[in-house]
Write a structure and sequence with these properties.
- 3 copies of one chain form a homotrimer.
- With 241 residues, chain A is of the alpha/beta class.
- Chain A has one domain: Rossmann fold (3-Layer(aba) Sandwich).
- The first copy, chain A, is built from 9 helices and 8 strands.
- In chain A, β1, α1 and β2 form a beta-alpha-beta unit.
- In chain A, α1 crosses α9 and α2 packs across α3.
- The interface between A and B is medium-sized, with 18 and 18 residues.
Chain lengths: 241, 241, 241
Amino acid sequence: MGYTFVLVHGSWHDNQAWAPVIARLEQQGHKAHAPTLAGHARDASKSVSHADCVASLVDYIRRNDLKDFILVGHSFGGTVIQPAAEQLSDRIRRLVFWNAFVLNDGECLEDNAPPHYKALFDQIEQPDGGVMLPWPVWRDAFIGDADEALAKKAYDMLSPTPRRSHTDKVPLKTFSSLQIPKSYLNCTEDIALPPGPDFGWHPRMSNRLGLYRLVQMPGSHEAIFTNPALLADKLVEAGRD
Amino acid sequence: MGYTFVLVHGSWHDNQAWAPVIARLEQQGHKAHAPTLAGHARDASKSVSHADCVASLVDYIRRNDLKDFILVGHSFGGTVIQPAAEQLSDRIRRLVFWNAFVLNDGECLEDNAPPHYKALFDQIEQPDGGVMLPWPVWRDAFIGDADEALAKKAYDMLSPTPRRSHTDKVPLKTFSSLQIPKSYLNCTEDIALPPGPDFGWHPRMSNRLGLYRLVQMPGSHEAIFTNPALLADKLVEAGRD
Amino acid sequence: MGYTFVLVHGSWHDNQAWAPVIARLEQQGHKAHAPTLAGHARDASKSVSHADCVASLVDYIRRNDLKDFILVGHSFGGTVIQPAAEQLSDRIRRLVFWNAFVLNDGECLEDNAPPHYKALFDQIEQPDGGVMLPWPVWRDAFIGDADEALAKKAYDMLSPTPRRSHTDKVPLKTFSSLQIPKSYLNCTEDIALPPGPDFGWHPRMSNRLGLYRLVQMPGSHEAIFTNPALLADKLVEAGRD
């Protein structure tokens, strides 16, 4: 009956953001896991590599011996579930990319982001390797569908993200030949990446999946805060057989 | 009060798929006809030309002496209502293209489809000229908004489509100068063609109509199965004066 | 609690079109002003410049000593709120572009419209400098979501628009460096400009704003007539802090 989901957060986030989504999934009869990636959360060291992020996810799945699950990646999380899928292909029922990066072999996240983000992150990177997202960018480009109170409350849950997770090149030798079914969930008001053919999420990233299922819902990049119940329902629609 | 609709199905379909749409249209006070095109349906010979498909529609309309109707084409059906409109322009109140191909003079359907479809169809074409759509493509790219049970039930209603209907060049000498009003109905989750400027339905196909009305609704390429009532309502919105 | 809105209409419109939107805003506790721009409305002289339109807006705001307001521009109105924002930057809380033009320094509206509009307007411009929008274009490209009765009723409220407001080049020396927050409200069925990268509203115009908030709603270019209550609610979502 129910499915098992493994939910992988994006940059500046940790596992806590998924709590209302998990509550809804469980209410509908599903199970969900939401590990925090290496280098994420407030107290984590920011000097981690992209490979460390991937290893922390793979370790979590192996340690809990999870099988036959739907693996979901949000935003930066897409770059983590791709190499994880290469290592764990026989455990994964379907991959779901939710407004997530889909890298080509040898690319990094910032290869697929607009130049103004790179310039901004160069300016604000801290000595420990962490980068915090500025409030004005968060407010309008990330969570424009929230009222100001919710935007602030959610901003308080963020923490600096390890810059190397955006700049390390990611080897993906077998991803494009994996036989795992794939879905892309697109929030139609997501402008965390500038919409359009050059830098938009969909269809630029989704079309890289080859054969895939498309699910869409209204909402910003942060529907996890502004509409977690609908997000959970759409993850089921994207993840089901 | 009510309008008369002539509903032209797409590839792999026949007239049966329209039944719930027709029920809704009639409930709202409209009339609807849904002929099966030559070479379509399970028991039909697959060795028909594109011109045979067009002739079967034109004959149906003349035989039933239909006048002042809204002519709707879905997907491949767009390539059939275009030449039919050239022959029957004085009978048609409005043309509605529902996620349909809009050909330029002398093109065929496959001229407007991505190369991977041509390669696939070359591989799977049967000796009798028929081509069946593979289940994985159907499940995720055509009917991604259905649950698995509905996806299977609808797949069982499909039959091989005559390949020549996709590859015969279609002369369209007068279509662009016809004075018939035109609408395009776009399902926003339709990825039967890969979304984007190169191969997407909208606005690539719709903009070829010149002055047109745009109606959109949520749903996949097969909203005829997943949401026939809303589809009927949107066909009225697209087709009304 | 409530916000103050200044609502700037588009071409062929005057302040009357905003009445149902204002009623809804006031019902929700907001205040709203809707001046008629120079050269607009039925009895106005059509021999006005773009600068006259801007001056009429700036004068209205100064005369009423409006401060701390959300300045909204629809369609052509975008080209008016841009220079007004340069002159009144300290009075404006946020700029909202609703399916509006966003000009680069020294451009005019017709620099950003498809050639077929220029050709049409050249043909139908009257000796007094006014241009009326033809009914077929209005019916399908501007207000395709209305039934015919509403489309006609709304058409009767239009009046010729001064051509120079579309062809005068607009100096915008400081707009791109203004620190005023910005939003773009996009109606998803708006095809008054042909959708797509060459001429579409969004993201072609919206991306010119740099950092901005995106709000979307269903509807045509003329949701002011077809769904004024939702339009008002979305203007609040776009305009709030």
